[in-house]
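Name: TetR family transcriptional regulator
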Amino acid sequence: MARPTAPRGLARQRVLDAALALFAEHGVHGSSLQMIADRVGVSKAAVYYQFRSKEEIALEVLRPSIDDMARVIRIAEVLPDMLRRREVLVSGLIEMVVRHRQLSVLFYGDPGIDQLVRDEPEFRVVTDRLQELLEGPQPCIADRIALRVFLSGVCRVAADPDMSDIGDSDLQRTLVELSARLLSPDHAGAPVS
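Structure predicted for TetR family transcriptional regulator:
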């Protein structure tokens, strides 16, 4: 009698879940297809049956957050006011990062992920548009720096194991409040002394 097999979609998800855990522990470059296969409990060939490469796995792991970013961008783009657009983008990004806390580890400081996102045209369009909308048409040096502090800070806090005792709703509310201060129009364009 043949052994029952899992549907292909379930097998793909198991590979993605294992990869996410390994990428969070070791980074993309520090994780191998063999490690992913071992974590799932299958052969490396079984992983290759689902995905062509580790990079394809990493892109699929990132896809839910990129799709979320694209959705937030579409909402923000219809707003006529730049400040309102930024508010929607900031709160949407924070909500996404908090919802995908484990995934935010990948966005914070893994050069492999940075390169994959830059090299994947579909993802690059989303990240470039996000930056354009957040910076506005003529960002000054202080605005550009504040935006980078916001983006890296939100991901870093969400990924920080020392913050795991903070519930999602408290983390999200506090990040929105702090981001509003950091990206405040009162400070926009203010010279840095």
